[in-house]
Amino acid sequence: MNIFLVEDDVIYSEFIQKGLSQNADYKVKPFASAEDAIKAINGALPDVMIVDYKLPGLSGIELYEKIKSKITDNNKVIMLSAIDDGIMVLSFIQKGVRDYVIKDENVIRSLQAIISGTDENYF
């Protein structure tokens, strides 16, 4: 499973990569900006995109808006944020984002549950 991780915090990006790499089926490719991820997409979305909401340049939600028309049932876009704000989450949902994870002590388990499709049992 190809996973793009768009996270500008290098240490946090490495933390998520290590956590997800425990599953040998996950191939995580990191990007420090939305612009870099867009270049790498080159017409075909990865299976999963994990996108930090606050990024330099294009924000995570702006990246989502740019790729939204290419997303199929075979792709997942997971928005990450350190901010636990119900109004912000509602705005994500209104734009079509279905998966949102807060950067907390459960972030790896939350991401694994969404990626594997077992999030209904997890949450």
Structure overview:
This protein has 123 residues and is of the alpha/beta class. The chain has a single domain (2-122), classed as Response regulator (Rossmann fold, 3-Layer(aba) Sandwich), CATH 3.40.50. Helix content is 41%, strand content 20%. The chain has helices spanning 10-20, 34-41, 60-67, 86-95, 107-116, 119-122, and strands spanning 2-6, 27-31, 48-52, 76-81, 99-102. Strands 2-1-3-4-5 form a five-stranded parallel beta sheet, with helices on both faces. It is globular and about 30 Å long.
Distance between the termini: 23 Å
Largest sheet: 5 strands, parallel
Number of strands: 5
The top-level CATH class is Alpha Beta
What is the residue-mean pLDDT, rounded to a whole number? Answer: 89
Gyration radius from CA atoms, angstroms: 13 Å
User: Rough shape?
Assistant: globular
- Number of domain units: 1
Strand order of the largest sheet: 2-1-3-4-5
Instruction: Tell me the β content.
Output: 15-25%
- Compute the number of helices: 6
Ranges with pLDDT <50 over ≥5 residues? none
Keywords:
single chain; 123 residues; alpha/beta; Rossmann fold; 5-stranded parallel sheet; 6 helices; 20% strand; globular
Summarize this entry quickly.
The chain is an alpha/beta fold and 123 residues long. It is 41% helix and 20% strand. The protein has a single domain, classed as Response regulator (Rossmann fold, 3-Layer(aba) Sandwich), CATH 3.40.50.2300.
